[in-house]
Amino acid sequence: MGHALAFRKCGIQSHIVLYHFGGLAVPDSVSNYVGYGRQYSSGSKIFVTAMGPGVQMLSAILLILFLRGIGKTDGFLTGIVGIPAAWTADPVGSLQDLRKVNGAVLPCYPIQQFPELSQAALGLADKNQDGLITWIELVDYEVELEAAAKFAIPMWKTVEGKSPRLYVPREMLDHFSGTYLEILDRADRGRDKLILWEDVVRGHLQRIRVQNEFLSIFCFGFIQIGLFWAVMNLIPVYPLDGGQIARELFVLSRIPNGVIKSLKLSIACGALTGLIGLRLNMTFIAIMFFLLAYSSYQMLQRMLGRYF
Is the preceding peptide bond at 236 cis, omega within 30 degrees of 0? Predict the structure, then answer.
């Protein structure tokens, strides 16, 4: 779409051809394309070429802004790419903010993880009968028994190396307001129950995700293609848009043998991107860029008068 709009801006009529890997803007006729003559300069070619991924990225960004406006996450920027949620105002970042507050999320352990001889007594310490023991419950039980020997600390140490479940102390409800309080209230199952962190996460994610499955998949795929593929398309490798732009920049700079140098750059960038793809276990990307690098190598050999 971006290429077609740019062609029209340059006075060239074109149409869009769809195929399995995407789409392509093609001038309506050779005479239409060639007839534009000298006005279709290297600068115009760069403009037309850059408009493709440019419009693609712009449309993805607009969709992200729309999702943020209605309080939804896109599931891609933070969830897949790993961009900090604060950078894109992703509402999933509220969970990260909560966890950063000192004392907001604490460990608790199932009674079964404690030594077997202590489990019967811990059943009495478990006041809300949820099968989970917190440090506070253990200390309160020790105080209640007025035991001469302290047992809370050594008993707690027996489970510290095990995988805990997490909860939010109820008194933390008095320390938060606004969005954070709403998130915790949503997971609150009653005053006699722990506010489990897994319930906090589940409730918040359910609220900020697009509920309609089709729309959720569409938004994720649209943003992934609009950003990931557009950025990859700008890598200076033939015949990608980035390779075309690199060639025209070499031509504009009047560097001797600019096209040959752009092909050498294409080979290097293709091989490097292929290696990165292998490193990230992205086999398809790796194979594709290795093939593009080899294709550029063949083009370079032909330009140099070699045929091997």
Answer: no
User: For residue 198, which of 264, 141, 132, 112 has the smallest C-alpha distance?
Assistant: 132
> Do 36 and 95 belong to one domain?
no
Judgement on whether residues 152 and 173 belong to the same structural domain of the protein: yes
Residue 167 CA to residue 249 CA, distance in Å, equals 57
- Are β-strands 22-27 and 106-110 bridged in parallel, bridged antiparallel, or unpaired? unpaired
**Does an H or E element contain 212, and which?**
none
pTM of the model: 0.74
What integer is the mean pLDDT of 93-109? Answer: 90
The DSSP bridge partners found for residue 166 are 107
Residue 173: Cβ-neighbour burial (10 angstroms; 0-12, 13-18, 19+): middle
User: Are residues 241 and 230 both part of a single domain?
Assistant: no
Q: How many CB atoms lie within 10 A of CB 37?
A: 7
For residue 157, what are the domain limits? 88-208
Smallest CA-to-CA distance from 45 within 212, 262, 229 is with: 262
pLDDT tens profile 33-74: 444 445 556 667 777 777 778 888 999 999 999 999 999 999
Nearest C-alpha neighbor of 280 from the set 78, 81, 53, 83:
81
